[in-house]
Amino acid sequence: LFSGFMYAAVGSYIARVWRIFDFRFDRFPNLWLQFALATAVYINFFTHHFGPDIRLFLFVATAFIYGRCVIWFRPDEAYRPMPLVVGFGLVALFIWFAENLGTLARAWSYPGQEADWHMVSLAKLGSWYLLMIISFVLVAAVQYRRKDPSRDDTRPRG
Fold this sequence. Notes:
This protein is mainly α. It has one domain (2-154). It is 59% helix and 7% strand. The chain contains 5 helices and 3 strands. It has helices spanning 2-20, 31-47, 55-66, 84-104, 122-146, and strands at 24-26, 70-73, 80-83. It has a 3-stranded antiparallel beta sheet with strand order 1-2-3. The longest helix is centred in the last third of the chain and has 25 residues, at 122-146. The protein starts with a helix and ends in a 12-residue tail after the last helix.
């Protein structure tokens, strides 16, 4: 239940910062391609326990799909650009930091942390990165219904 709230919080965070920082995009990928990737990520979260883990392929696919995409965000008066994959990586990194703080504070613990605390595996950082893809695509679908994020008028002016 607790992890379900964490996953929901990531999607909520993305929706909130999209609005607060007035996200705009250059070279925004087609939503159908993003949905295909998000579906593959979601399926792999379950099937990797009893079948092949295609995480490395999924990381390459995110670079292929989002590699050229630039997100423009406005933290103050001016828009600032950043490669979208860097944004995904940064958010995943901060979630991983928070996860380590949560386990250090004993809000929850993973197997092997019962006796003494140790940092959460770096593999979890990759899991959070892939979760970002699922959450981002769901929020992008909602935003797309409001206004197509790939259209030229969504980029900052000036």
